[in-house]
Amino acid sequence: MEDILNLSFDEMWDKVMACDQKYDGLFFTAVKTTKIYCRPSCKSRKPKKINVDFYYDINKVEHAGFRACKRCQPEVDHSPRTELVRNVTAFLI
Description:
- The chain has a single domain (2-92), classed as DNA Methylphosphotriester Repair Domain.
- The radius of gyration is 12 Å and the shape is globular.
- Strands 3-1-2-4 form a four-stranded mixed β-sheet.
- By secondary structure, the protein is of the alpha+beta class.
- It is 32% helix and 14% strand.
């Protein structure tokens, strides 16, 4: 997945700050201080940039010891568009 999306840390940070729903399911924001991970569109208070890591795979973020945010529920696939976005991104690259 990393090769398909290919966003820099700053680009992903910009998507999180904008609460961009188009990237939900494509990467996850992990907050080191709280050990919680969220969707890019989560409406919770934003963490400090230095406390954030990004993961492309939900299994890797959970294996790293983070738990899902109770507000945005990133472990639940709410968006029917996630697969469409993945296909379009793969097609464009």
